[in-house]
Amino acid sequence: MKVDKQLILLAVSSLATLTLGSVGFYTLSPDNGVLTSVYLAVQLFSMNSGVVDEVPTPTLIEIARWLALGTLLVVVHAAARALLVHFRSAMRISAMSEHSIVCGAGQRGEALARALSRHGHVVVIESNELCPALGDLKNLGVEIVIGNAVDSAVLRQAGVTRARNVVAVTGTDETNLGICAEVSSKLNPHCALSAGLESWAWRNYFLDRLPTSSKIRLDSYISRATQSLMLSIGLEAARNPTLRSRGLTLLIEAGESRLQELIRSAIMIIQVSGEKKLRLELTATNTKQQKEFCDRFPSASFVADINWYEESASMIFPEGSEVRPDFAVFACESDVESLELAERYWMRHEIDGHRVIACLEGSSDASYMDLLKKKHNDIRVENLLPLGLGNEYPLDTDIERKAKRCHAIYSGITEPGASDFSDTEESWNQLSERLKESNRLVARHNEIKRVAWGNPGNEPSTEMLSFLSRCEHMRWMAEKAMDGWRWSGSHDSSTRDNDKLKHHLLVPFESLSNREVEKDYSMFLWALDLEDSELDQLNLTEKAREMIRLQRELSLEKPY
Q1: Crossing angle between the packed helical segments 256-269 and 461-481, to the nearest 10 degrees
Q2: Is pLDDT larger for residue 425 or for residue 136?
Q3: Quick one: DSSP state of residue 423?
Q4: DSSP secondary structure string, 55-80?
Q5: Of 444, 446, 442, nearest to 480 (Cα)?
Q6: N- to C-terminal Cα distance for the chain?
Q7: Is the model's pLDDT at 48 over the cut of 80?
Q8: What is the DSSP letter of 497?
Q9: Is pTM, for the whole model, over 0.85?
Q10: Contact 143/204 with Cβ under 8 angstroms?
Q11: CA distance 41 to 61
């Protein structure tokens, strides 16, 4: 922790004043006693003592009273300067509108404030005035308000009634949600709100409980990061027809805080092999983790083959073993452990370095990251926090725009000739947070389908479409399974129960009705961006052609 040099100087000066003054007064009048001498020395700071009858004034007292005067002047100057800085900051904040407020200056808050400062004014609320990030943020032009963001008075001080965005990323999920709820209900109902909820349990509980009119978005930056990571793996697998046909095997060795998000993202995103399930090898786990996961996600076995091991990856897959995963992800509690395990695994197996991934905690030190990437053909190193924030505006990510486009086409509500999302934005805002997240997942997986379509291998177009339909059904089942849904026990649609999370369609592709098969066949075709010549060769349903027509009528930049 950095210590202000001025504080050290004031402490030394004050101590010297008291010491010299006490000794000087005691030497001058020993009959007064030690306590009276100390009392007279303290009064030097208020300029009430220091004048003595003896001429000349004793040297120690003379030095002490000038030290006291200097100390007092420095304190007055510092106080005046602090008041001026506070006043200037308050004036700048009072002149702001449409600015962003970030509650919390921890690792996430600092990174978000840096990213948002490139797009407009930012105010950071932080309760700890000694937070090390505040100095650098001030240098970027970010305004700082010291206080607790739970307090509405502090939020008003930050200009919440005029803000465009409020992002709550304090130390606890409950506090973040509470701050956003306070702003939404009492302070600024028109403000876009982002509550940082890293706990899956909290997100899952509130996804369906927030009113559709609420502007609160539940954001997990570790979830965003793991989804982006798994998307990159899925895209590489989609480019490889051999890997697609035999099914992907992924090794994950991670700390408890990241393991579940990595598993969920892998299962929901990496569905690239039709009905061949993703195979997960989970090393360095324990029985408690396995039981908790299986209890939360009882249908996970429908969409993935999961093997749990207590031993580490090097023990389960020793050097020279014939069976080994296609990709390996290491995300331990410490960066050095992740790096060491990933490099050790890479050195002992014949596997490309970019398929062995070390996930770091999220340090924003660019030079540190550059050093880790200098070795040729080394392991892949991913910094999770920037990966979760994305490369653009962190509150309206690229995947968010793609998700809105998915919703526009799926719902079929876009008017012909529309040139932007103005006709669909209101509809998007009326969706529950769970449905918004579902569209985000669809948008991610459409990228995988498009890459697979562009790398068909020896598969004819019609067979590739059938294959991608199976992938779509597995993706949908994976999404449901990772939301805690179970099979209803019957193929009858009447057995579906949204409240109890039971669904009649959590079944193999062959068990679907023709109507459901047609839906899987149609829902993603627009994302392939098919040429007219390709369309003429395919026997498409009317619903599929309608979706492709809607996609073309959205005169927008292509998101793929």
Answers
A1: 150
A2: 136
A3: T
A4: SSPPHHHHHHHHHHHHHHHHHHHHHH
A5: 442
A6: 45
A7: no
A8: B
A9: no
A10: no
A11: 9
Nearest to 434 by CA among 259, 139, 204, 267: 204
* DSSP character string of 184-206: IIII-TTSEEEEE---HHHHHHH
Separation of alpha carbons 122 and 411, rounded Å? 36
Residue 388 sits at the vertex; the CA angle it makes with 382 and 391, to the nearest 5 degrees, is: 90
Cβ-Cβ contacts under 8 Å for 421 (sequence gap 6 or more): 404, 405, 408, 428, 556
Q: Are 365 and 111 in contact (CB under 8 A)?
A: no
Q: Which two tokens stand for residue 67?
A: 């030290």
> Residue 414 pLDDT more than 70?
no
Q: How far apart are CA 237 and CA 359, in angstroms?
A: 20
Burial code (b: 16+ CB inside 10 Å, e: under 16) for 291-319 equals: eebeebbebbebbbebebbeeebbebbee
Query: For the chain, what percent of residues have pLDDT higher than 70?
Result: 91
CB atoms near residue 87 (< 10 Å): 10
CA nearest neighbour of 325 among 357, 287, 289 = 357
pLDDT > 90 in the chain, percent: 43
Q: CB neighbours (10 Å) of residue 196?
A: 27
- DSSP-H helix ranges across 133-220: 133-139, 152-157, 173-182, 200-207
